[in-house]
Design goal:
single chain; binds cobalt (II) ion; 18% helix; nine-stranded mixed beta sheet; binds ligand LZKTLF4L; alpha+beta
């Protein structure tokens, strides 16, 4: 059970606050079909090419929306962390949300103190070249949450 959800002050670390919605990630069974859908049917202005992310076990395509992004994900390699998700959801679906934090170490301290488990022992470099960590969906109301360190002026 999560300890207090209210305290923002955590022993030994400054208060932190949650930043912007960086992206909503969709796992897709057919990346090119999804890319064309968001570009030609949904008329998104900026849809990136597919980028292989071997260290994350996915291909990514980013659909720019102005105030946030959609990240299209497709498995890369035999060990993809999203393979089981697509097995369970054959047509694809919302996979995770990515939220920005100013300091990922401070955020992780606070989250761990509240009983939220990170899925990796240390941040990895994400699709934007910034530190990212995923939080256990069971500790986040059934939602897979990715936090990305984005220092804003
Ligand atoms: C290039 C980086 C890019 C970026 O920077 O933006 C990315 O986003 S990379 C994206 C791909 N990488 C990851 O998603 C890494 C974190 N994810 C994982 O490690 C796995 O997906 C994991 C552990 C969350 C789930 O893996 P798997 O489905 O194989 O595990 P289980 O079948 O054992 O499921 C356990 C439990 O969790 C539930 N679950 C699984 N996926 C999700 C999800 N996306 N949202 C919510 N819940 C999820 C699953 O249903 C199981 O629940 P249970 O009640 O036990 O059946
Ligand atoms: Co992501």
């Amino acid at each position: 059970m999560l300890r207090s959800l209210v305290t923002h002050e955590v022993k030994g670390s400054a208060a932190w606050k949650l930043g912007r919605l960086n992206h909503v990630a969709l796992a897709v069974p057919d990346l090119e079909q999804a890319r064309v859908f968001w570009r030609d049917v949904m008329c998104a202005e900026k849809v990136s090419e597919s980028v292989a992310q071997p260290e994350h076990g996915v291909y990514t395509v980013f659909v720019e929306l102005g105030n946030t992004k959609i990240e299209l994900l497709h498995p890369y390699g035999a060990e993809s962390p999203i393979a089981a998700f697509l097995e369970r959801n054959k047509s694809g679906g919302i996979h995770h949300v990515c939220l920005e934090v100013a300091d990922i170490a401070v955020a992780l301290d606070a989250l761990k103190a509240s009983g939220v488990r990170p899925l990796s022992s240390a941040p990895k470099v994400g699709a934007h070249g910034l530190p990212v960590v995923f939080l256990h969906p069971k500790d986040c109301g059934g939602v897979l949450v990715e936090i990305e360190e984005k220092r804003r002026p």
